[in-house]
């Protein structure tokens, strides 16, 4: 499994922690880690996350994270396939960090990991499922940040 990180908005250089994001996302995708696949984590601004939300989900609001699973190709080309994409809104992370008692980096990681947990099959429609996803994300982030 390969994690690609893209910064498509103005994010301070000290938050360009590509290795940390990659390590955390790999842990969230642990069941698929041996897959010959790629996941893209794309940090975007509010305008872009709104566009993605409207275009693909018909939601007319800014959100923190959106993830898209991609179907496995019906044949093996011998190359990595696009397992999924996760869009993270930096401005929402910046606004919400203090609200959730996180640093901006932790909040960005929370969204990236949350999106990857969705890609790995977890859901958050029920409150208890959301709480479990948050627990898993916090555990993953703590393990990566304490290395």
Note the topology.
Blueprint: E1 2-7, H1 18-28, E2 37-44, H2 46-57, E3 65-69, E4 81-89, H3 90-96, H4 104-119, H5 127-145
Parallel strand pairs: 1-2, 2-4
Antiparallel strand pairs: 3-4
Helix pairs in contact: 1-4, 1-5, 3-4, 4-5
Summarize it.
By secondary structure, the chain is an alpha/beta fold.
Molecular structure report:
This protein has a single domain, classed as Metalloproteases ("zincins"), catalytic domain (Collagenase (Catalytic Domain)), CATH 3.40.390. It has helices spanning 18-28, 46-57, 90-96, 104-119, 127-145; strands at residues 2-7, 37-44, 65-69, 81-89. Strand 1 (2-7), helix 1 (18-28) and strand 2 (37-44) form a beta-alpha-beta unit. The model has no long low-confidence stretch (mean pLDDT 93). With 147 residues, it is of the alpha/beta class. Strands 1-2-4-3 form a four-stranded mixed sheet. It contains five helices and four strands; from the N terminus they run βαβαββααα. The longest helix has 19 residues, at 127-145. 44% of the residues lie in helices and 19% in strands.
Beta-strand proportion? 15-25%
Any idea what the radius of gyration is?
A: 15 Å
Characterize the main sheet: 4 strands, mixed
**Adjacency order of strands in the biggest sheet:** 1-2-4-3
Residues in helix, %: 40-55%
User: What is the H/E string?
Assistant: EHEHEEHHH
The counted number of beta strands is: 4
Low-confidence runs: none
Inertia-based shape:
globular
Mean pLDDT: 93
**Assembly type:** single chain
Which CATH class is shown?
A: Alpha Beta
Q: Count of helical segments?
A: 5
Q: Give the class from helix and strand content and strand pairing.
A: alpha/beta
Q: Write down the domain tally.
A: 1
